[in-house]
Structures are given as C-alpha cells and as structure tokens.
Amino acid sequence: MSAPEKIEDHGLLRFLTCGSVDDGKSTLIGRLLFDTKTILADTLSAIERTSQKRGMSAVDLSLLTDGLQAERAQGITIDVAYRYFSTGTRKFIIADAPGHEQYTRNMVTAASTANLAIILIDARKGVLTQTRRHSALAHLVGIPHLLVAINKMDLVDYSRETYERIKAEYVEFARAIGIEDIRFIPLSALNGDMVVERGERLDWYDGPTLLEILEAAPAAHSEHNEQFRFPVQYVCRPQDSANPELHDYRGFMGSVESGSIRVGERVTVLPSGLTTTLKAIQIGGADIDEAITEQAVTLLLADEIDISRGDLIVKADQAPPASKQIDAMVCWLAETPLDRARTYLIRHTTRDSKAKVAAIAYRLDVNTLEHVDADRLAMNDIARVSFKLAQPVFADPYAKNRSTGAFIIIDESTNNTVGAGMIVD
Q1: Domains present along the chain, CATH in parentheses
Q2: pTM over 0.85
Q3: What is the mean predicted confidence (pLDDT) over 359-388?
C-alpha cells in the first residue's frame, strides 16, 4: 500500500473583509463558512428555519453574521468580529470590521494583524467612495495583499464587460495611491460562484476561486527579509532551594516578533549595547536549536548581562538605531481629543517611554485622501504626528517590520489606550 500523499500546511492566514453597506459582505463570509462545512448542524438548522420564516427558498447565509448587524441597528458601539474556519491546507481568521467612516478606528484595529484584505465591490455600483477609503486604509496599515472581489455578478448577468470596466477603474485609483499587489475576482456570494466552487456561470474567468487564492496567499512575515527582534517580556529566575542546578538559571522570556535565531549566534542587548552568545533556546523547558517568528520562547545567554523587561535582543550586526523622536501615522482611538499640552505614554513592544507631541504635520481626509492642516485629533482621525520621547526606543519603519514599527499611545491618568501609531521612515 502506498503512503498517503502529504498535504502541505500553508499556516495561518489572517484576512480582513471590508465593503460598503449591502455589498454582500455578510453573505460572502456566510458562504465561505457554509461551503467549507464549518457551520455546526444546529446553527445551520436555525438559519434554515429563520430563512423559511422570511419566505426565502434558499438559506440566507448572511444570518450567520447577523449579530453584528443587530448591534448596528441598536446603535451600540461596534467592535471587530472575528470568525474562524479551516480547510485541508490552512487555518483562517476572518476579521469582520464595519466599514462606516465613524468606525475607522475599528477597521484600523482589525487591519493591524491582517495579511490580506478582501475589498468587496457591488458589480451594479462599481468603485465607490467607501471602496477607495477602505483600500487606502488597508494600504496605510501595511496589509501587503489586496483581493478585489467584484460581487453580485448574478445581478449584472455575469457580464464580463462590467467586470473589466470596474477592474480598470480600480487599477487607475490603486496606481495613484501606490497600491501594487492586487488581484481581482468576479463572484456571486449568494449563489456561490467562484467562492469555494467555480459554478457554471463565470466560464469566461479562468483564474482561481476565492478560496484557492486564500489558500495560496503568502504567509505573514514573508514579504520582507525581516531581522531578528526579541522584546524581553519577563526575566525568569526560579527560586528552588531543593534544586541547586536552578540557582544560576536566568532565562529571558518573550515572543519572537520577527526573524529567527539559532543557538551559538552572537546577539546584542539594547539599550546597553552589550554583546554575547545565545547559549540555549527553550520552549516549555525543552531545548530547541532555532527560534522563529511568533514563537514564545526562553533565551539563555552565555554571559551575565543586566537585562529587564523592555530590553530588546537582536542579532549582533542587526541593531536598529536608538531614537528619542519618531514620526508616525497615528489613528486616534479615544473619544477625548488629543491634547498637545499633555504627556502621554508610548508603548513600543514591551518598552514604555513618556512622550510629548512635537508637531502634527497633517490630518488625512479618509474620503478624499487629501492632507488637511490640523492642530488637534478627534476620534477616528488619522494624522502624521511627531513625538519627542523621554527614553529612546529601538524601532524599525512600519513598512519594513509591522511588529517593531508599531506602537500604542496610553493616557497615563486612565491607563486607557488612546491611539495607535505606525512609524514612517
């Protein structure tokens, strides 16, 4: 008997769905969950009964996301909804963020961890202001791959001419704002054409289905040759008098934000600048030879160096520069406006620094993409802001490293997160 064929695991893909009202976003998510057989039997029975009560001949898959719609109808503050599903080759996390302008902060939050965004367009309406805004925000927060899904093709008789016209209009807009990695797909979320199954009514489209694109999309951290970054979260010093071997144990715990490291490599600790050799890497007490991106590990060093939470361990020849002033694109999250006279706390990886606003270069109009003069920031505003810091941070530009190029802004009096920033060159 021959051995079963090994299926390649493409890893986890986090992606964002965004679209204007009634573009079919809820139906698309429902179709993905339904056709990948992710829906539990009792959930399917419930939406079948509800669909029948509404006089529908087919199951209304948008009901799977009705919780979010109900919140909107009640005027409740809407948060990001996450949904999970998997196929034979990959696991997925869908970030379902509302697309209204007043929920810009929610979309930025959802997009911050996504590696792909599906921009949904109604084939009857074409490229709208909200389409441009969603695309610009996705580009701003560094989502490397955009998939433009032209939906409701069933309502335009599956017209190839309509699809090509919308595609050409979007390409012209994308070129103007610098979006490069774009794919297009025509589909009908309602009928399932080109979502998971190809269907029979889009035979003129010879590209992959939506699910095939998602399954083959590059994994996170694969766009750049990211350098090793390990912010120290905790210093482990076991206190066990019965075990003398642990007396000199000093492990530095945290997550590998980017890059990889092997035992025996030379590392530098910041801010001290001292260099040593990586003696061991452990996970759950077991030794491993290499630590890679997103692994939570404990590092042991060959020399005793004074290290504490907030320090950064990097490869010896890859230290980022220290900076006490940073320029960043900031999304203001709080209802209380930014106060230029106040001191805030900037948290970059595990390191905190007091900060003052040095200047607001401009505010971005998310609808027109114009730069507008501003001396204050209100909730949902996005602006380019300069900060002066009391203690230096060791940061990479966000365009090169989304993990160490980002930070949050904290109100010291309330300990609330009031803003999120992306460091620019």
Answers
A1: 12-216 (3.40.50.300), 229-315 (2.40.30.10), 322-423 (2.40.30.10)
A2: no
A3: 92
- Return d(Cα 348, Cα 346) in angstroms, integer: 6
CA-closest candidate to residue 239, choices 229, 250, 228 = 250
Residue pLDDT, tens place only, 247-269: 678 899 999 999 999 999 999 99
